[in-house]
From TrEMBL, chain A:
Keywords: Cell membrane, Hydrolase, Ion transport, Membrane, Potassium, Potassium transport, Transmembrane, Transmembrane helix, Transport
Protein name per the record: Potassium-transporting ATPase potassium-binding subunit
Pfam families in the record: KdpA (PF03814)
Organism: Methylobacterium aquaticum
Subcellular location(s) of the protein: Cell membrane
Gene Ontology CC terms, in alphabetical order: plasma membrane
Gene Ontology MF annotations: hydrolase activity; P-type potassium transmembrane transporter activity; potassium ion binding
Function of the molecule: Part of the high-affinity ATP-driven potassium transport (or Kdp) system, which catalyzes the hydrolysis of ATP coupled with the electrogenic transport of potassium into the cytoplasm. This subunit binds the extracellular potassium ions and delivers the ions to the membrane domain of KdpB through an intramembrane tunnel.
Cross-referenced PANTHER family: POTASSIUM-TRANSPORTING ATPASE A CHAIN, POTASSIUM-TRANSPORTING ATPASE POTASSIUM-BINDING SUBUNIT
Subunit structure comment from the entry: The system is composed of three essential subunits: KdpA, KdpB and KdpC.
Keyword hit for Methyltransferase: no
TrEMBL record, chain B:
Sites where the protein binds ATP: D349, E353, F382, T383, A384, Q385, S386, R387, M388, S389, K400
Membrane topology term: Multi-pass membrane protein
This protein's name: Potassium-transporting ATPase ATP-binding subunit
Single GO molecular function: magnesium ion binding
Keyword terms of this UniProt record: ATP-binding, Cell membrane, Hydrolase, Ion transport, Magnesium, Membrane, Metal-binding, Nucleotide-binding, Phosphoprotein, Potassium, Potassium transport, Translocase, Transmembrane, Transmembrane helix, Transport
Chain segments annotated as coiled-coil in the UniProt record: none
Subcellular localization(s) per the UniProt record: Cell membrane; Membrane
Reaction catalyzed: K(+)(out) + ATP + H2O = K(+)(in) + ADP + phosphate + H(+)
Record keyword ATP-binding present: yes
Domain of life of the source: Bacteria
Active site as annotated: D312
């Protein structure tokens, strides 16, 4: 570890923190329907869209209607995307003559992109047409992110409103999230990326002759626009197979730094939106602080593990950190930091191969996802996932002040606890359940490239990444098979909607309640004590569930590695 | 019962039956009410079956497996034992109550004899249980009151020790707020005519028995929510443990079923699951020992949540009742004439204030008490609307009451009281000068914290009686404590705002409601509730009933009317309104105990993982020995120690569950910090030490 490395980490945190307030204020104004800087331009567009859809923007929805609208919206999105992928061979904008996507892969990819996971069982440049990339994927990159933000805003309204049946309108929230937040940011961001050297073209790939005289095909395409939303919307699906490690997706050190910032930007600012909308910004900072504690701890472990390297290589005289699978352009700190950010935030874009990290270095991304992507998390999804943990933490410890538990004046009762537990339960079921299945079935065992604990980690990582809607891959796993495509798709769908719908149910139940004014007897939820409590509950309830699995994967691999042991390859 | 039965936590007489009950409670139909412990019972039964199969077939490691199974059963039994001990304490109290409910006979009065003033000797003796609601019975000195009822005639001293534990007799009389009598209590002197208000089997004592026995116990909302959380955590650990066999087979090993079950049982929140119902029962029991009966656990929980406390000034904030201390006539009226009129108006007034006026008139001016009947006078009772009472006699009308009420009545329509020569009185004119003077005197009295009572005769204001309140010692400190707990106190009084303000300031309450009518009280409760606050109040009169019913915690005084007792969700047997404060503390204590043990239970899991995980996988991944941070002797001793710790911690925490975590009025943040440190951090650390010690013992005894 180097001082310059830590300075880079500190600078990163400072830039993200600096963005929280302005972006939070802007988004609060957007979602509360107040005028913003962009209203003169976008207001008419917004109203036009409503008129076109025959929508009354003042018509608010009950949580069931809100959730229903969201589900219908995603089912339709799924069908359209599936159709495009299956028919891409006959549709326009296919200069590379890509053939139709196979049914299981199309199913997996559609599930992946509507759930904001962007797990890719395929290589983008070798499988998809430009139309599939732009109309299919980029389109869902926007909408799945906007839908996550809408759900988060609805849950915030559950806390901020009192004695009401409605949570706002899904259609309005979705439109505003896309129109006022994602689109303007992406336009500016795309221009920046193009300046940094990312291609943005509809032209076909370019053939080049190398110095040795060999012919090389250089894939191109509308890359910059998709990269912008892949990061801002914490989607993570790359245009190229190598994702952010590819020089055309992540050309410079500055681009790398800005890309990392853009992953956290909206998620972190949503905590401020939360604080503002519930009328106490400190509440938002407390949530962000809990996220920050877990984040810094993760960065410290991964950076340390990667910088320390492996004793096996040291034994061969290769001193220094672990550079396997990393771009030398970004180095150890740039790769470690990116890995922790992308898994903390449910993004899944990668600028290094997580599979090649040291055992402990690779364990942190795994844990980040297993906690449920609540360390900043996916746009919207991170906040509502975190608030589900808040409900549980408050319920357990809130009793200890001698009152029935309440958060922001809302009593946490049976219904909220039931829904919160449902949201928490579905992740270990998907992650551990499918891993257990894959580690005994021949179809599952055919996947990993390595034997022993590392192969186990590869399978565990895949289901963890899918259920947590992260989408990053540990690599090493051959996932484009019927078994993996279908089970991973299921994990993604359950991991998304069985957290999101309970979150909306909690919102509906909370909105109907009265708000109890705070007093000296109320549990203060804006201080260090609350942050500590929340972190403790997340680590114990969210993390301990995975201790046996981690012990059999990265932990034993690490201990064996320290002792100089390896496990036979094959598998 | 109550005061006397301050039993120690583990009374030998209770432990025997509790042990037996712990076994009978193994009945799955009962266990299923407690999801966590039910799951433990199911897996214990399942592994027992496997064990029997292995014994028959001749398996390996039988001694170890047998011990694990034994401790699984102990875990369930300890949980049942905790509940049985908690219930046992209530049962002992119920027994002593039952003894008072022995077969009684009743002297049933029918026809004319049933009416007040009717003949008393025409009664028929019937068995007590045959009485129906509405029957009228005669109860004479030495008789047991056959059932709950309301005194419709007579005054008697009654021994209510059976329900209050207080041996000093209390007065029960018709009319007013002390008309309710309880079945099973004994009349010591005089006689009363009682209208029965409760049928056999649903009397107050019956309900008390059901409550303290826990028979009527239903899960409270918070308990239900907590059970959902515990069930959810149990399912999470089903996933965590259920996936291990596959993982192990991938790694080329196999884990014995007993070891998986041991890990599962130690991880699921058995500690709180085992003690949850004991905590609830003990909470109710603490109230009972405090001589307060909660009609539901929900009420106890609500008590912990109370934001606003409505306290009647009289008897709660001030000592007993106001006493008349001076007669203050207006100019042109002698003090004696005022005293005479005030005394006449108070003759039939049975309130303590009324009596104190009669006493003062006799002390200061030697005016003797007169008989209402011989004066041919009609008593005009106090109503909450008129806020006046008085007397009509001899063509003359005397009224006393709140100053503004009396003046207002004179301003409004004149009361026709006489004809002919006294026609002057047909048009009583409000004497503006006298009214001004009265107001001045009243203000002076009020500023001093006293209560002015205006007296008027035939439309003429005579003067003011000065009634004085004395604030109870120590009450100010109690209110300060409540403020630190985050509870706002509101004093309710019929006094005018100025008097109320003076007493409120002296007592240190946060707010007051002056000149409160029952409607005002109700409106205040609704207003607070509309802001999301929970309101507690106590009351005794019939006119308190609507407010008692509306309040989230309504404590009715046992001396109160039947209506009040029905409306509240708690009854204070000692009729001490100050207890509301302790009731709130008991509610908070109950919730805190639940939270503390849940936190402790969940925090325990960290150490258990570190004990069992390395032990479990050691056979095929010896590298995991590094995780054995406690340095436990062998895989088997590690697993056994964890499961023994898990069972023993239940027993160790029974006293805490029954006594409750102490509540300190230090503010929520400080309280939480302390409890998180003790039960959160303690919960993480204690099992590391405990499991290590048990491991040393297990190894020394060669158990594994």
């Amino acid at each position: 570890m180097t001082l310059i490395g830590w300075i880079q980490i500190a600078l990163y945190c400072a830039v993200v923190l600096a963005l929280v307030k302005p972006l939070g204020l802007y988004m609060t104004r957007v979602f509360t329907g107040e005028r913003t800087l962009l209203s003169p331009v976008l207001g008419p567009v917004e109203r036009g869209l409503y008129r076109l859809a025959g929508l009354d923007e003042r018509q608010e929805q009950h949580w069931l209607a809100y959730a229903g609208a969201m589900v219908v919206f995603h089912i339709l999105g799924f069908l359209v995307l599936y159709g495009i992928l299956r028919l891409q061979a006959v549709l326009p904008l296919n200069p590379a003559d890509q053939s139709a996507v196979a049914p299981d892969l199309a199913f997996n990819t559609s599930a992946s992109f509507i759930t904001n996971t962007n797990w890719q069982s395929y290589g983008g440049e070798s499988t998809l047409s430009y139309l599939s990339q732009m109309l299919g994927l980029t389109h869902q990159n926007f909408l799945s992110a906007a839908s996550g933000m809408a759900a988060a805003v609805a849950l915030i309204r559950g806390f901020s409103r009192a004695s009401t049946r409605t949570l706002g309108s899904f259609w309005v929230d979705l439109t505003r999230a896309t129109l006022y937040v994602l689109l303007p940011l992406c336009i500016v961001y795309t221009l920046f990326l193009v300046w940094q050297g990312i291609p943005q073209t509809l032209g076909a790939s370019v053939d080049a002759t190398t110095l040795e005289g060999a012919k090389q095909t250089i894939a191109l395409g509308p890359v910059a626009s998709q990269v912008a939303i892949k990061l801002l919307g914490t989607n993570g699906g790359g245009f190229f197979n190598a994702n952010a490690a590819h020089p055309f997706e992540n050309p410079t050190a500055l681009a790398n730094f800005v890309q990392m910032v853009s992953i956290f930007a909206i998620g972190a600012a949503l905590t401020n939106v939360f604080g503002r909308m519930v009328g106490d910004e400190r509440q938002g900072w407390a949530i962000l602080a809990a996220m920050g504690v877990l984040f810094i701890a993760g960065v410290a472990v991964t950076y340390w593990a990667e910088a320390a390297g492996t004793p096996l290589l040291h034994g061969l005289g290769l001193e220094g950190g672990n550079l396997e699978g990393k771009e030398v352009r970004f180095g150890i700190v740039g790769s470690a930091l990116f890995a922790v950010i992308t898994t903390a935030a449910s993004c899944g874009a990668v600028n290094a191969m997580h599979d090649s990290f040291t055992a402990l270095g690779g364990m942190i991304p795994l844990i980040n996802m297993q906690l449920g992507e609540i360390i900043v998390g996916g746009v919207g999804a991170g906040l509502y996932g975190m608030l589900i943990f808040v409900v549980v933490a408050i319920f357990v410890a809130g009793l200890m002040v001698g009152r029935t538990p309440e958060y922001l004046g809302k009593k946490i009762e049976a219904k909220e606890v039931k829904m919160a537990m449902l949201g928490i339960l579905c992740l270990p079921l998907m992650m551990l359940g499918f891993t257990a299945l894959a580690t005994v079935l021949p179809a599952g065992l055919a996947g990993p490239a390595n034997a022993g604990p590392h192969g186990f980690s590869e399978i565990l990582y895949a289901y963890t990444s899918a259920a947590a809607n992260n989408g990053s891959a540990f690599a090493g796993l051959s996932a484009n098979t019927l078994f993996y495509n279908s089970t991973l798709a299921l994990a993604m769908l359950v991991g998304r909607f069985f957290v999101k719908i309970p979150a909306l149910a909690i919102a509906g139940s909370l909105a109907a309640k009265k708000t109890v004014p705070a007093s000296a007897g109320t549990f203060p939820t804006h201080g260090g004590l609350f942050v500590g409590l929340l972190v403790g509950v997340i680590v114990i309830i969210g993390g301990l569930t995975f201790f046996p699995a981690l012990a059999l994967g990265p932990i034993v691999e690490h201990l064996a590695g320290q002792a100089g042991q390896t496990f036979a390859t094959g598998g | 019962m109550a005061h006397a039965s301050q039993k120690s936590l583990f009374d030998a007489a209770l432990l025997g039956p509790a042990c037996i009950n712990a076994v009978t409670k193994l009945d799955p139909r009962q266990m299923v009410k407690n999801p966590v412990m039910f799951v433990v019972e199911v897996v214990a039964a399942f592994t027992t079956l496997l064990f029997v199969r292995d014994v028959v077939a001749g398996g390996q490691n039988l001694a170890f497996t047998g011990q694990i199974i034994l401790w699984l059963w102990f875990t369930v039994l300890f949980a049942n034992f905790a509940e049985a001990v908690a219930e046992g304490r209530g049962k002992a109290q119920a027994e002593s109550l039952r003894r008072t409910r022995t077969e009684t006979t009743a002297k049933l009065l029918t026809g004319a004899a049933a009416l007040p003033g009717g003949p008393r000797d025409a009664h028929r003796v019937v068995p007590g249980p045959d009485l129906k609601v509405g029957d009228v019975v005669l109860v004479e000195a030495g008789d047991l009151i056959p059932s709950d009822g309301e005194v419709i005639e007579g005054v008697a001293s009654v021994n209510e020790a059976a329900i209050t534990g207080e041996s000093a007799p209390v007065i029960r009389e018709s009319g007013g707020d002390r008309s309710a009598v309880t079945g099973g209590t004994q009349v010591l002197s005089d006689w009363i005519r009682v209208r029965i208000t409760a049928a056999a089997g649903s009397t107050f004592i019956d309900r008390m028995i059901a409550l303290v026995e826990g028979a009527a116990r239903q899960k409270t909302p918070n308990e239900i929510a907590l059970n959902i959380l515990l069930a959810g955590l149990t399912i999470v650990f089903v996933f965590a443990v259920g996936s291990i066999p596959s993982f192990a087979s991938y790694a080329g090993g196999a884990i014995p079923m007993t070891v998986l079950v041991a890990l599962f049982v130690t991880l699921i929140p058995t500690t709180i699951g085992a003690l949850l119902s004991a905590i609830g029962i003990a909470g109710m029991d603490r109230l009972v020992r405090f001589n307060v009966l909660a009609m539901s656990g929900r009420a106890v929980e609500a008590a912990g949540d109370v934001d606003t406390l409505l306290l009647d000034k009289t008897g709660t904030i001030t000592l007993g009742n106001r006493q008349a201390t001076a007669f203050r006539p207006v100019r042109g009226v002698t003090a004696e004439a005022l005293a005479d009129a005030a005394q006449l108006a108070s003759l039939a007034d049975e309130t303590p204030e009324g009596r104190s006026i009669v006493v003062l008139a006799k002390e200061q001016y030697g005016i003797r008490a007169r008989d209402m009947a011989s004066l041919a006078a009609t008593f005009v009772p106090f109503t909450a609307q008129s806020r006046m009472s008085g007397i009509d006699l001899d063509g003359s009308s005397i009224r006393k009451g709140a100053v503004e009420a009396v003046i207002a009545s004179l301003e409004s329509a004149p009361v026709p009281i006489a004809t002919g020569a006294t026609a002057r009185a047909l048009h009583p004119r409000l004497d503006m000068v006298a009214a001004q003077e009265i107001r001045a005197i009243a203000e002076e009295i009020a500023k001093a914290g006293g209560t002015p009572l205006a007296v008027a005769r035939d439309g003429q204001l005579l003067g003011v009686v000065h009634l004085k309140d004395i604030v109870k010692g120590g009450i100010r400190e109690r209110f300060a404590e409540l403020r630190r707990m985050g509870i706002r106190t509101v004093m309710i009084t019929g006094d005018n705002p100025m008097t109320a303000a003076a007493i409120a300031a002296e007592a240190g309450v946060d707010d007051f409601l002056a000149q409160a009518t029952p409607e005002d009280k109700l409106a205040l409760i609704r207003k607070e509730q509309a802001q999301g606050k929970l309101v507690a109040m106590c009351g005794d009169g019939t006119n308190d009933a609507p407010a008692l019913a509306q309040a989230d915690v309504g404590v009715a005084m046992n001396t109160g009317t039947v209506a009040a007792r029905e409306a509240g969700n708690m009854v204070d047997l000692d009729s001490d309104p100050t207890k509301l404060i302790e009731i709130v503390e008991i509610g908070k204590q109950l919730l805190m105990t639940r939270g503390a043990l849940t936190t402790f239970s969940i925090a325990n899991d960290v150490a258990k993982y570190f004990a069992i995980i390395p032990a479990m996988f050691l056979a095929f991944y010896p590298q995991l020995q590094t995780l054995n941070v406690m340095g436990l002797a062998s895989p088997q001793s590690a697993i056994l120690s964890a499961i023994i710790f898990n069972a023993l911690i239940i027993v160790a925490l029974i006293p805490l569950a029954l006594k409750g975590v102490r509540y300190r009025a230090v503010g929520a943040a400080a309280l939480l910090r302390r409890n998180l440190l003790v039960y959160g951090l303690g919960g993480i650390l204690v099992p590391f030490v405990g499991i290590k010690l048990i491991d040393l013992a297990v190894t020394a005894l060669h158990l594994a």
